[in-house]
Amino acid sequence: MSGKRLLLAAVLLAVAQIAFLSWMIAGRAAILRNGQEVLLKVAPIDPRDLLRGDYVRLGYEIRNVPVKLVANAPAGDFVTEQGPILVRLGKDEDGYWRVRSAALGEPQEQPPSGEVDIRGTVSGGWTLGPEASFSVDYGIDRFYVPEGEGRAIETDMRERPFGILAAVASDGTAQIKALMDGDTKLYEEPLY
Amino acid sequence: MASYSSRVRTDAARWVASGLIDGKTAEAIILDVAAHERRSLSFGSILAIMAGLLLGAAILIFVASNWEAIPRLARVGALFAIIFAGYVGGAVLKLNDHAAIGEAVWLIAAAAFGGSIALIGQMYHLSGDETQAVLVWCAGTAVAAAALRSGPLTIAAVALSAAWLILREVDFWRDSDFPYVFIGIAAVLWLVSYWTESAAARHLILLSLVLYAVLLAFERDAEVVGIAGVLAAVSAILFALAVLMPAQTEAIARLNGLLPVHALIGFLAGVIMIQFEFGGDAGPGFAIAAAAGLAGIVAAVVLAGRESRGLRWIAYTGFAIELCLIYAVMIQDMLGTAGFFLAAGAILGLLAFAIIRIEKRMKEPRLTEGAAA
Predict the structure, then answer these.
(1) B103: number of CA atoms within 13 Å, CB side?
(2) For chain A, how many structural domains are there in total?
(3) For residues B44 and B23, what is the distance between their CA atoms, to the nearest angstrom?
(4) Up-side HSE of residue B327: CA atoms within 13 Å toward CB?
């Protein structure tokens, strides 16, 4: 490769990779800026990620979705298939948002005002009995904190209710906005 | 190990002393060998690459520490600056005759790209997509390798793809599908490795394909024998092609003539998996697989062992593993094991006798030819 072409390739490559990363950031920031805010009740689970450091694992109250709330649960099947699910949330008296209904697959209609659809994945193998419920993964079950602070927050979480203020994009993608200790915001996420 | 040129130097001195060639010819040979020797693996360049890897690891761990003293927008900016300075600076170094250091700096830039993905995950609390993050990192590195025509970056991309394969399989909590896509990724990286002229990357791809087959067999434990059988058969075919048509296969695979070594590794992995599947009961299935394994090892040594020391060592290792497996499985019946070893020993002894005769015969005409000329 000639000198000029190698330099040009290096510059284009660097710009392309940086642009790609910026696009990732912009997409996430847009959800934080424009998404519908919902307050979700959480309980801690357990931490650490090799690549990204300390985090608190969050168990959401809305993680459990009863089968009887799923409008289009397949009648003949005994267990769930792995796939996307949209869970409709509504706000309760105490300020927390809870499951109203759910639909497997892609969205059919817009939620009525005061309610919001949040996107998750259901893994395969959950029983589909009328009294059963299954667990949904919303991709927001980690809260990254500076190294060493994870444990303290987890201990507190076991003593009193904590909440996550999340932003939900119009396509249902959720994004953590703040960690709430009762009514006080512990960590609030800046856009960037 | 002494390099080829230094060995030629001592040989040439001996040839001059014994009157085979004159001093002028010896000097010409030594110069020619030195000029054509590949300089890619000098000590300095290995150190440079290691330094690059260490600095890259430092970036990744720094990101993981989530240090609040530096605002995260500044961390993002610093990583972007490293990416830009790394790729462009590496190109400048390469053009100014510092190829090894240039490659090392490119590796740092690729690490900064991976670090940025991790940092974005941390900033926005993304969960459950480590495997996807590694895959994006792999793709970015492969693009960088192709754009800059870099061998070390190609190897890095292959290593990341293998890491992705392993992460996907280790992730017990998510019952995700088996990563069949890996075959496609390996094919793309293989093509990239032609463009970047990286034989080392192709070696790594072949090894990770063997790993893929092993993981696939673990995943579908009902079909272990079938999958392992296909692995062993494909490896045997590749081996036969490499031995029967060495020039043609080398022209396609371009593995410095080491395709038989990979084929033998794949074959042994397949045969040993079959034996594990039949393990416990020393039925006919186990015996057939064991016999096929030993026959394959002997065939490999006879057909290609002379050209490659690496292949001989893989064969010896495989042979030792086979003996241990057979002993472990047949231990409940020592007399049977003794009988099997007795027969195998006798056959190998006969083979050794035959091989020694054959190799002697093969050498003889060459000697007479040399004398006549």
Answers:
(1) 22
(2) 1
(3) 32
(4) 8
Give the mean pLDDT per block of 10 residues along chain B (373 residues): 73 86 84 68 80 89 76 88 94 89 93 90 75 90 94 94 87 66 93 91 93 87 84 92 86 84 91 81 77 88 78 82 76 70 80 72 53 42
Residues of chain A with Cβ-Cβ distance to B57 below 8 Å are none
Q: Which helix (H) or strand (E) holds A119?
A: strand A115-122
* Of the partner residues B64, B80, B149, the one whose CB lies closest to the CB of residue A51: B64
Check if A124 contacts B (Cβ < 8 Å): yes
Chain B residue whose CA is closest to A173: B126
The packing angle between helices B130-148 and B182-195, to 10°, is: 20
If DSSP codes are grouped into helix, strand and coil, which group holds residue A118?
Answer: strand
Please name the residue of chain A whose CA is at the shortest distance from the CA of residue B130.
A51
Q: Is residue A17 part of a domain?
A: no
Model pTM? 0.77
Look at A51 and B63 and tell me if their CB atoms are within 8 Å: yes
Contact present, A141 and A62 (Cβ < 8 Å): no
A6 at interface of B, judged by CB pairs closer than 8 A = yes
Q: Are residues A52 and B64, on separate chains, in Cβ contact within 8 Å? A: yes
Which single residue is written with the structure tokens 């099947």?
A77
Per-residue DSSP letters for B260-300? HHHHHHHHHHHHHHHHHHHTTS--HHHHHHHHHHHHHHHHH
Q: Report the chain A residue with the minimal C-alpha distance to residue B86.
A: A14
Q: Do B95 and A7 lie within an 8 Å CB cutoff? A: yes
Where are chain B's structural domains? 1-37, 225-373
Cα B69 to Cα B71: distance, rounded to the nearest angstrom: 6
By CB atoms closer than 10 A (0-12, 13-18, 19+), residue B16 is middle
Round to whole Å and give the CA distance between B261 and B246: 13
Residue A13 lies in a domain: no
Q: Answer yes or no: is A16 within a domain.
A: no
Look up residue A141 and give its DSSP letter: -
User: Could you give the ipTM of this predicted complex?
Assistant: 0.75
Triad B298, B300, B302: Cα angle to 5°? 70
Residues of A in contact with B73 (CB under 8 A): 190, 192
- Domain of residue A139 covers 35-188
Residue A12 lies in a domain: no
